Amino acid sequence: MNKWYNLKSEHDDIILSTRVRFARNLADFPFPCRLDDEGKQTVCRTVRDALSDVSGIKLHYIEMDNLSRKQAVALAERHLISPEFAIPQKGRALLLSEDESVSIMLCEEDHIRIQVIKGGLDTEGAFELANRIDDLLDSKLRYAFDERIGYLTQCPTNLGTGMRASVMMHLPALSKCSQISKLASTVGKLGLTIRGSYGEGTNAKGDIFQLSNQLTLGISERSALDNLKAITMQIATQERSAGEEFVKNVNILDRITRAYGILSSARLLSTDEMLDLFSWVRLGAVYGIIEADTVKINELTETMQAATLASAHGENLSEDERDEIRAKTVRKELFGKQ
């Protein structure tokens, strides 16, 4: 089955993915931080049973205790769980769809974290699917909800709608021209925040940034999504304008073609180097300087990170062995070379 990142999508020259996440808690249980292991397991099983018949979606139930450390980190690398959720702790579980577009963390910071990822810019599609799952749970379980405040969450910053919506954007021109700090200041005044690809406190490897809403209280889900979409399109326009000028520079053209050459012939390739080279090659492909399949780059970005690669090829691989497999896979999948 194709994953969400295997498919061509709208505005994917700049916008790699859209994510909508709902934080929910059950009224009949304390927050996870106050639950013992048995209580957490009860919550997990209760939610699992409530979602046994989601129309058109098969959800696999995964007890996090049954995963190795690398398998858990691999899920975080692919943005299916939070980095914190990958830390071993009893009483946690995950519901995951086969195409990895739906992931539901159970007993993380809140009882339920519903997450839907769509390729490109698709706020409507991501929201509608997340909302359908949310409505199904709401019809079977009793949420912690206050008529005045909204959905009750462990962290006050999620009170209200409990919704976080974000887009992942490739912004090489704005990044390399040192415009991100200015951009972050501007979007902050509009109720949004721009961070590294794994959220707060992370670096933007490969010039990939996450833009998300900050406000959840006193604003509707639709208003938050409309605001996110509008600002995303403005940033995409800025990136395209900056990119058109950026690639006219012979030094930039040289970086693009050198990156293409290294990826097509490298025998060892670290994750960080791969992401940096992918950024240059994607830039060149978008502006017709070189030929490269950007959808395939999306796929390799997800599948060739350290823990994900190790989970697929053997958890006891040395660093050199991982780098060799990564380089060989990139040569074969992106360039058709052995």
What do these coordinates show?
With about 350 residues, this protein is an alpha+beta fold. It is built from eleven helices and ten strands. The mean pLDDT is about 95.
Overall radius of gyration? 21 Å
Shape: globular
Order of helices and strands: EHEHEEEHEEEHHEEHHHHHH
Number of strands: 10
Percent range for β-strand residues: 15-25%
Output the number of helix runs.
11
Structural class: alpha+beta
- Rounded to the nearest angstrom, the distance between the terminal CA atoms is 25 Å
Catalogue the unreliable spans.
Answer: none
Instruction: Characterize the largest beta sheet: strand count, sense, and whether it forms a barrel.
Output: 8 strands, antiparallel
Major sheet: arrangement of strands: 2-3-4-5-1-8-10-9
Helical content band: 40-55%
What is the residue-averaged pLDDT? Answer: 93
Task: Give a nutshell description of this structure.
With 338 residues, the protein is of the alpha+beta class. It has eleven helices and ten strands.
What attributes characterize this protein structure?
alpha+beta; 10 strands; single chain; 338 residues; eight-stranded antiparallel β-sheet
What's the topology here?
Blueprint: E1 15-24, H1 37-50, E2 59-63, H2 69-77, E3 93-97, E4 102-106, E5 112-119, H3 123-140, E6 145-146, E7 150-151, E8 163-170, H4 172-176, H5 180-188, E9 192-196, E10 208-213, H6 221-246, H7 250-265, H8 271-286, H9 294-303, H10 306-313, H11 319-335
Antiparallel strand pairs: 1-5, 1-8, 2-3, 3-4, 4-5, 6-7, 8-10, 9-10
